[in-house]
Write a structure and sequence with these properties.
Elements lengths: L3 H41 L3 H25 L2 H19 L3 H22 L3 H4 L1
Helix pairs in contact: 1-2, 1-4, 2-3, 3-4
Length: 126
């Protein structure tokens, strides 16, 4: 009986930590996807200034949380996001419509994949 209580407490702590982590990742990923959708819409309407301002806000937010994400998810995914953000920055400075929209689409998919990989599914456990 003495060993059951610590094990139950440990399991509850692990599940709680996972839930907190998943909620954090899901909230930020959804927020990034929303920002990227706004950026895409502005670019398609040839509103590069507003889209670049939104992009800079998103980039600033990413810089604040990327170190936390390094602890929570695969380091390669964080590096992938960093590289794509820098590509988008360069393409936006050049006002290259096709390449900018392409990289935005890729980055949105990376965030969707991260949400899926961190979700509670049997395929993610085994």
């Amino acid at each position: 009986m003495k060993t059951i209580i610590p094990v139950v407490i440990l399991v509850i702590l692990i599940i709680g930590a996972w839930f907190f982590t998943y909620k954090h990742i899901e909230d930020y990923s959804s927020d990034f996807i929303y920002s990227l959708d706004k950026i895409s819409k502005n670019i398609k309407n040839s509103n590069w200034e507003d889209s670049y301002d939104e992009f800079l806000r998103m980039k600033k937010k990413w810089k604040r949380i990327k170190n936390t994400w390094d602890l929570l998810i695969d380091h390669q995914e964080v590096e992938s996001i960093n590289l794509i953000i820098e590509k988008i920055n360069t393409y936006m400075e050049l006002k290259n419509l096709d390449l900018t929209l392409n990289e935005i689409t890729i980055l949105k998919e990376v965030f969707r994949i991260i949400i899926e990989k961190e979700s509670f599914k049997l395929t993610n456990i085994f």
